C-alpha cells in the first residue's frame, strides 16, 4: 500500500515537506485519523501531507495540532508615546494553553524609520525559556511595483538549522506567498484576499497545494471588534491545518503569521 500511495504522490507532482526526507516507502509514519481533525466538510483527507518521526527538538508540541492560536500582546507604552515597540506574541494550542512565546528583536531606529518593513529577528521560546524557533526577516520591499525584492522569512528550528522559508510571490491583485523547504523548493502556497482591511470580519489566507487546486487549511486574522482594531495594535491569528502536517511546515506557518501581521495589520494610534 505504501508503494502505491507514493506512486500516486509522485504522479500528482506533490513534493514531500521534510527537507531531505528519505523515500516515503521506508520511513513515513502517519496517524490514521489525524488528517481528519479540523478538516472542512467535502475536502479530501490530505494523505499526501505526511509527518515523520524525526521531529526537531522543541517542536514536539506541534505534532497533531490542527489549530494554533497566535495572540499579540498589547504595547500600551507604544500607544501612548506613538512609537513602534518590539512585538510580543503568545502562541497557544486549540485549548488556549500557551506552548510558545515570541519576542521581536530589532533596532529602535528600524522600528520607527522603516516601520512595518523593518528587518528583525523573532525568537520563539518554549515554556521553559528555551529558544526552539528563530525567524529572520531581512529588510525587503513590499510593493507590486517591485517584483524582484519582495518579502521573505527564514525559519530555523532549532536555531542554526534552516528548515524552511516563507516567500512573497508577485501578483497584481492578491497577496500570494509560498512555504518552501530548506532547499527553497515550493511545497505549499498561501493566497490572501484582494482586500485585507478586515472591517467587521475575519481575514482568511487560504493554504493551498502548489498547483492551487486543493485547499488544505487557512490562516485567519480574527476580527477583535471595532475598538480593539482601531485603538490597539494587538492582533489575533488562527492557523487551521491538518493535524499530521509536518511540524517544520507548521513552524513556517507561524512565521507567516508574523509576516502577515507586519505587512497588513501592523498599526499604531499615531498612524491613524
TrEMBL record:
InterPro entries: Scramblase, Tubby-like_C. Its cofactor is Ca(2+). GO terms for molecular function: phospholipid scramblase activity. Keywords: Calcium, Lipoprotein, Palmitate. Residues 1-49 are annotated as: Disordered. GO terms for cellular component: plasma membrane. Pfam families: Scramblase. Residues 28-39 have a biased composition (Polar residues). May mediate accelerated ATP-independent bidirectional transbilayer migration of phospholipids upon binding calcium ions that results in a loss of phospholipid asymmetry in the plasma membrane. Belongs to the phospholipid scramblase family. This is Phospholipid scramblase. It comes from Castor canadensis. The gene is Plscr5.
